[in-house]
Amino acid sequence: MPEASPTLLRPFLGVTREETESACAAAGLAPWRDPHNDDPRFARVRARAVLAQLSEALGPQLGANLARTARLLRDDDDALTAWADHELAAARPAATGHVPDGDAALEIDGLVRLPRAVRTRALRRWLLEAGADGAALGSRHLAEVDRLVADWRGQGPVDVPALSVRRIGPTLAAHPHGRVEWARPKPRPADAADDVAGADADQE
């Protein structure tokens, strides 16, 4: 959980319960205790109980160490996400003439060389922008889409929540589920010759 996001600020996230209670006592304030924080129906309450038991077994610095590790991981994630956003912008094609109208397109040549941690972040952002259901989009979906880029063996379309993704040459294409695509058959050379012959016969 970050201390700041585009919509929320959490200035007291790094303040411990003991520090909060001490500050309230010094100011003559009676802190209000949220009863939900003691309700075991919530996963966060059960997690705190387990963490307290681990702190007793492993030492009182366990919580602080986990918080420090979380901050380091947040920094790593921010850096990888910024890198992925840059690569995603470069991978958007200038023109999509070989992709069906209405499909989201992504050129994969530049993505293949990226570390998987960066590539899958870029793919996830692209899928969400194309209309994938973010609440249902999981790691297994990303892994299958990533195989279309990094382990291409001619496999067919990949279904992710709300989208179907396929590879067309050097491009990924995504379109919403339920959309019917009509393929226009290309005329065979023999068909073209028959048409010419028929036209000549009509003129005679």
UniProtKB/TrEMBL annotation:
Keywords: ATP-binding, Cytoplasm, Ligase, Nucleotide-binding, tRNA processing. Pfam families: TilS. The keyword tRNA-binding does not apply. Residues 177-204 are annotated as: Disordered. InterPro entries: tRNA_Ile_lys_synt, tRNA_Ile_lys_synt_subst-bd. The keyword Ligase applies. Residues 195-204 have a biased composition (Low complexity). Residues 106-167 form the tRNA(Ile)-lysidine synthase substrate-binding domain. Residues 178-191 have a biased composition (Basic and acidic residues). This is tRNA(Ile)-lysidine synthase substrate-binding domain-containing protein.
